[in-house]
Amino acid sequence: MKLLLDTHIWLWSLNDPAKLGKRVMHELRDPQNETWLSPISTWEALTLNAKGRIQLPAELGEWVRRATSPLREAPLTHEIALLARQLVLPHNDPADHFLAATAQLLKLTLVTADGNLLGLGNISTLANR
User: Fold this and answer.
1) pTM of the complete model
2) R_g of the chain, CA atoms, integer Å
3) Domain boundaries, the chain
């Protein structure tokens, strides 16, 4: 399975794995699976840090390198940007639009606890349960 981590799933896997459901933890540990991360999630984490909503280490460059190194980097393409703009989601969070579009175009399974992103039809999702 090819898994695209929603930002909160990625951050929980790094800092608070107890928040991950049993199925998600199993899939993340399965060496047969590929684990992907969008640069949008990195941007979102850095934005949350800048707003004081999460606390990252002072050396952000080093943190980004360490936190992303075990993951495959999902591309951010013009095609993804176009689909992100066209997607109809129950809310207007731009990061979620990019993640959903990335999952759909690259045929990845979006791992999330966000009810707004579960069961989106053409987008494969894995609920954090």
Assistant:
1) 0.95
2) 14
3) 2-127
Q: Which amino acid belongs to residue 10?
A: W
4-57: pLDDT as tens digits: 999 999 999 999 999 999 999 999 999 999 999 999 999 999 999 999 999 999
State yes or no: pLDDT of 108 exceeds 90: yes
DSSP string, 44-66: HHHHHHHTTSS---S-HHHHHHH
Residues 6+ apart with CB under 8 A from 64: 42, 46
Side by side, the strands of the sheet bearing 34-37 are 72-73, 34-37, 2-5, 109-112, 125-127
Q: Can you identify the CATH homologous superfamily of domain 2-127?
A: 5'-nuclease (3.40.50.1010)
